[in-house]
Specification:
Strand content: under 5%
Structural class: mainly alpha
Oligomer: single chain
Shape: globular
Mean pLDDT: 80
Low-confidence stretches: none
């Protein structure tokens, strides 16, 4: 059984991290994709 159940694919998560590295605010990324900014960390 895979314990890593997430509604986001690995590629999407990497995309979120790249957006953050590019300087996009975490709150903006999380709002845009519909998850809480605390779950980002």
């Amino acid at each position: 059984m895979d314990l890593r159940t997430s509604k986001y694919s690995e590629e999407q998560i990497i995309g979120f991290l790249r957006q953050a590295e590019a300087g996009m605010p975490i709150k903006e990324i999380s709002r845009k994709h519909g998850f809480s900014d605390t779950s980002f960390y």
